[in-house]
Amino acid sequence: MKKRSYRFSPSIVVFVLLFSSAVIWYQTDSLSSAFLDQIHKDMRERTELVRYMVSNLIRNNDKAVA
User: Fold this and answer.
1) What pLDDT shows up at residue 2?
2) Rounded-to-integer distance, Cα 34 and Cα 40, Å
3) What residue segments make up the domains of the chain, in order of their start?
4) How confident is the model at residue 1 (pLDDT cuts 50, 70, 90)?
5) How far is Cα 63 from Cα 12, in angstroms, rounded to an integer?
6) Where are the alpha helices (DSSP H) in the chain?
7) Which of 12, 40, 34 is nearest to 26 (CA)?
8) What dihedral do alpha carbons 57, 59, 61, 65 form, nearest 10°?
9) Measured in whole angstroms, how far is the alpha carbon of residue 29 from the centre of its chain?
10) Count of other CB atoms within 10 angstroms of residue 11
11) What is the pTM of this model?
């Protein structure tokens, strides 16, 4: 049996593949984290808006009744 000669060492190829997949996973994870933070911020703003509208409705209703 003759020994195979690799142009690249298999362990180096495996390391590069693992490293690049880890970098891609980290970037998509931070990207999704920023995306979720934006959604959370939007939901908070909408909640504040709804709270403001409801308090105005109650205030105006109290004025109309009085």
Assistant:
1) 63
2) 10
3) 19-65
4) low
5) 76
6) 10-65
7) 34
8) 180
9) 7
10) 9
11) 0.45
C-alpha atoms less than 13 angstroms from C-alpha of 34 in its C-beta half-sphere: 5
Using the structure block, give the residue that is written with the tokens 């195979």. 4
Distance (Å, rounded) from C-alpha 58 to C-alpha 47?
Answer: 16
How does DSSP classify residue 9?
Answer: -
Would you say how long the chain is, in residues?
66
What is the tens place of the pLDDT at every residue in 2-60?
666 666 677 888 898 999 988 888 777 777 788 888 888 999 999 999 999 999 988 88
Neighbours of 10 (CB within 10 A): 9
